[in-house]
Amino acid sequence: MSKRLSYLLCLIATLPVIARANFSDLTCDDSARLNETLTDVMGAERQGQGLREPETVLEVWVTAGTGDFMVVQTYANGTSCIVALGEHWEATDHNPA
User: Fold this and answer.
1) Do 80 and 29 touch, CB atoms closer than 8 A?
2) CA-based angle 61:22:82, to the nearest 5?
3) pTM given for the model
4) Distance between CA atoms of 34 and 2, rounded to whole angstroms?
5) Average pLDDT, stretch 1-22?
6) Under DSSP, is residue 37 helix (H, G, I), strand (E, B) or coil?
7) C-alpha torsion sign, points 31, 32, 38, 44
8) Do residues 68 and 41 touch, judged by C-beta distance below 8 A?
9) Are 50 and 58 spatial neighbours (Cβ–Cβ below 8 Å)?
10) SS3 call for 69
11) Which of 22, 59, 94, 96 is the most buried (most CB within 10 A)?
C-alpha cells in the first residue's frame, strides 16, 4: 500500500466518525470535510460519479501521481463514506454514450 494511501487512512481514522457500519473498512465523515481531506491532503480529484439510489451517489476519487483511488458513497444527509480503496488506477479512453 502506498505511503499516501496509508497516510489517508491514518488521517481519516482520527477525524470524528459520523456514521458506523458493520465492517471495519468503512470510514465516514461530513461530506465537505471528507472532500477537503481528499483534495487538500491527498491531492485527489473526483473522476466520476453516478446515482446509486435516489439519495445516494457513488464517486471515484483518484490521486493522479500515485494511482491510488477511493470509492466514496455520499448520502443526501451530508455524510460521505469511503467504501473501497485501491491502487494502480488506470483510466480508459472509452466514453459510453
Assistant:
1) yes
2) 10
3) 0.71
4) 20
5) 52
6) helix
7) positive
8) no
9) yes
10) strand
11) 59
